[in-house]
Specification:
two-stranded antiparallel ribbon, globular, mainly alpha
Length: about 350
Amino acid sequence: MSPSQGFLSGVWERLKSWEGFLLLLLLVIIIVNSIQAPAYLSIGNQINLFQLSIEKIIVALVMAFVIINGEIDLSVASMMGLSACALGRLYEQGVPIELGLLAGLAIGVLGGAFNGFWIAVVGLPSLVVTLATMIMYRGLARVLLEDRSIGQFVEWFDKLGQQPLAGPFPLAMILFFVFVVVAVILLRYSGFGRYVYVIGNNKDVARYSGVRVRRVKMLLFIASGTVAAVAGLLFAARLGAVRGDLALGFELDIITIVLLGGVSIFGGSGSIYGVLLAIMIVLNLRNGMSLANLTGHIQTGVIGVLLILSVLVPNIVSSMREALNRRRRISHPQDTAAAVQET
C-alpha cells in the first residue's frame, strides 16, 4: 500500500469512528442553524455561543480525565457555587477581592483533596462520595449567603468576566484555549496521561505494574476541584453577582459533553478531540434552540436525551460488532485458525 493510500485509509477509518459521527452531526447542526438564522454564523454570535457556557466547557475538560480514569465527580457544579459564594461573603465582610479569589481557589483545592482522600485512599466509590459532597458543598454555599445575592464587585473584576481581554476574546475563553492545549499534551503525550488510561482500564493491573494509582487519582480530584473553583470565580465575574444556587445543575451538561464525546462511562477510553466535538455540538445545539425560541426546560430535556444516547449508542454499536465478529468466526473457522497460526 502506498503512503497516500495509507493516509486515505487512516482518514476513512477515522471518519467511521464515533468522532467521525460527531463531526457529521456537528455539520448538520451548523447547516440547520445557519438556514434558520442568517446571523448565526456571525463572529458576535459565535463568541456569545461560547461565553454563555464557557464555565461548563472548562470543567468538562478536567471531567474527561476523571471519567477516563474510571471515576466520576458529581460535585463540580456545587464546588463552582461554593467558591463563588465564599468570594462574595468575604468581599461583603470587607476582605480585599484578591484575598477572596485566593480563598476561593484554596476551597477548590481542599474540596478536591477531600473527595480524593475518600476515593483514592479509603477506597469508597466516587459516585457515592461526590454525590454526598455535591449536597454538602451546595449546602455550605447556601449557608454562606442564605437567600441573598451579593454583587457590586470592584470594576476590574467585573470587566475580566464581561469584556474582551485580547481581541474579541474574554479572559474565560483564553483560559479555555490554554486548558485545551494542556489537556491534549497531558492526555496524549505524557506518562501521566498513559497512567490515566491504564488505571481506567484496570486499576489492579496498573497497581501491579508499579503505577501509583492513589497518587494519580488524588491528583485528578484535586485538579477537578481546583478547575471547578476557577470556573466558579469566572462565572461570578461574568454575572457580576453570586447566589447560593450559582451553577445549579451544571453537572448534567458537563457529564453529557464528556460522554457524548466518546469517553466511556466505565473508563479506559476516550479522547480530548471527541470531547471538543461534543462541546461544539452541545453549544451549537443550545444556541440553535435559543434562536428557535425553545424554553430552557426543553433545552435541558434535549440534553438529557443526549446523555442517554451517548451511553447507549456506543454500547449498542460495540455489542453489534462483537456479535458480527463472533458470527464470522463461527461461519469461517478455517480463516480464524489461519489467523491464529500467523500470529
